[in-house]
TrEMBL record:
Cellular location(s): Membrane
The organism's place on the tree of life at top rank: Bacteria
Protein name: Uncharacterized protein
Keyword Cytoplasm: no
GO cellular component labels: membrane
Membrane disposition: Multi-pass membrane protein
Pfam families on file: Rhomboid_2
Family annotation (SUPFAM superfamilies): Rhomboid-like
Residues passing through the membrane, by range: 71-94, 106-124, 131-149, 155-171
């Protein structure tokens, strides 16, 4: 629904509207709780189809496995902490002269930090030794942009993945881990 709302807005109003809901340094200093909540409800590009696919694959799996409250806990932790850490790093870069002062108003909205955290926490759903491969792939996927000239968003995604991995206490006792080898060996009917 938020994507539909964005598409109905005049283009000149859309950026102002999103910037007011952004977790940028300026908005975080004015109303941190409001922007941490509202920034997670919008997709900057307005392209919802990739997110629908990713939500189906990762978020739905995580919510089914963890339950709604624990899943939301992972989402909130990844979104809030990654937003705060990445913006703190940007502020430090501005103060050191490594980023322009105008970066305090950088547009930073979206659901991707929560998604990165959920993708990472799902590593605990996979049985060992497959878990190590899954977690390695997740970390590489989120680390590659850092090697290519990091932005605060790239840092935020990597931090969100680490936060997802740190959510291990939320996953203990959530049932048997999925073993791909058992799935492949299951009789087909």
């Amino acid at each position: 629904m938020t994507t539909v709302a964005l598409h109905l807005m005049p283009a000149e109003f859309e950026e102002h509207f999103l910037r007011h809901r952004s977790t940028n340094i300026h908005e975080l200093s004015r109303s941190p709780v409001r922007v941490l909540v509202t920034s997670a409800m919008w997709i900057e590009s307005g392209h919802w189809l990739p997110y629908a696919f990713l939500y189906t694959v990762f978020h739905a799996s995580a919510e089914r496995w963890l339950g709604t409250v624990r899943w939301l806990g992972v989402c909130a932790a990844a979104h809030v902490l990654a937003s705060l850490i990445s913006e703190a790093m940007l502020l430090a870069a501005i103060r050191k002269g490594m980023a322009p002062a105008a970066a305090v108003d950088t547009l930073d909205i979206g659901v991707s930090y929560a998604l990165a955290g959920v993708i990472a926490v799902l590593g605990y759903r996979v049985a060992v030794p497959w878990r190590y491969v899954y977690v390695l792939v997740v970390l590489v996927v989120f680390a590659l942009p850092l090697a290519a000239g990091p932005s605060f968003t790239d840092v935020g995604h990597f931090v969100a993945a680490l936060i997802g991995l740190a959510c291990y206490p939320l996953v203990r006792g959530r049932g048997k881990a999925w073993n791909p080898k058992e799935t492949l060996a299951a009789p087909r009917g």
